[in-house]
Amino acid sequence: TGSWGKYAERFGGQLVLVTGAASGIGRATAFAFAEAGARVVAVDREGEGAARTAELARLIGAPEAWPETVDVSDEAAMEKLAEKVAGEYGIVDVLVNNAGIGLSGSFLDTTADDWRRVLDVNLWGVIHGCRVFGGQMAERGQGGHIVNTASAAAFQPSKALPAYATSKAAVLMLSECLRAELAGRGIGVSAICPGIVNTNITATARFAGVSEQEENRLRKKSSKLYGMRNYPPEKVAGAILHAVLNDQAVVPVTPEARGARLLS
Ligand code: NAI
């Protein structure tokens, strides 16, 4: 456990919905809000993982926590989820669109289906989340906050991850456009841009389309400079809470992400 209890005055009793909450950054974020006393909806397409997150969130301090098994790329399912949440739990105060999948491979090695798969989850999933829950927030008229998990890849061209990086650049721009639109309604929008974080996504990442020698060189360079894979998801969760507390627009999280943002 961390030290998020001190933000109970701000988040206590608020309704926080996190997607991709079955593991990694999403689970850590659900736990951080739980510690701050928020009521948590843990959404993931992996039902068991979501259930476990909700169960642990209650133990950690969430007065209530519910798992929801939903694929964020499924528009109808997201609309149904929003109706259910509004009807049974209330209007979401903080929405964290975090579900995402990795995809590595050079452009020439990436098929149209690969592009569709990654854009469906990483971009459309965020669009659906912002539409259905952001729409409810705006209608209620009492403000709120939306956090979208983009990536340092959004401002760091890479021949190893063109589809993933493109999906995240789109999420970054969507977040900034939405921030401008919703500011007048008291709804903040933040884009969180982590570099390399120690989760399932990076454990299984492959630098496909890059020679083994080049992959080894990249991994070595990265781990020497930044402790590749050592950056804990809990610290990204902390950055997400701070983004809401301080209404930050774009937040590069890991050291290499901050470096990439400065260069872009
Ligand atoms: P993770 O793989 O541990 O967690 C992702 C979660 O999203 C999983 O529980 C997965 O089941 C869920 N998910 C995937 N597709 C889904 C769908 N269609 N509907 C509902 N749930 C779905 O990985 P991690 O790292 O925690 O990823 C979270 C977010 O952070 C992603 O958007 C990722 O792109 C982003 N990110 C991760 C970085 C890293 O180095 N780990 C760096 C920058 C961004």
Task: Produce a short descriptive summary.
It contains 10 helices and 7 strands. It is of the alpha/beta class.
Give your account of this protein's structure.
With 264 residues, the chain is α/β, with parallel strands linked by helices. It has one domain (4-263): NAD(P)-binding Rossmann-like Domain (Rossmann fold). The protein has ten helices and seven strands. It has helices spanning 8-11, 24-35, 47-60, 75-88, 112-140, 162-182, 200-203, 212-226, 233-246, 255-263, and strands at 15-19, 39-44, 65-69, 94-97, 144-149, 187-193, 250-252. Strands 3-2-1-4-5-6-7 form a seven-stranded parallel sheet, sandwiched between helices. Bound molecules: 1,4-dihydronicotinamide adenine dinucleotide. The site of 1,4-dihydronicotinamide adenine dinucleotide has 30 residues, from α2, α5 and α7. Belongs to the short-chain dehydrogenases/reductases (SDR) family. Residues 14-195 form the Ketoreductase domain. This is SDR family oxidoreductase.
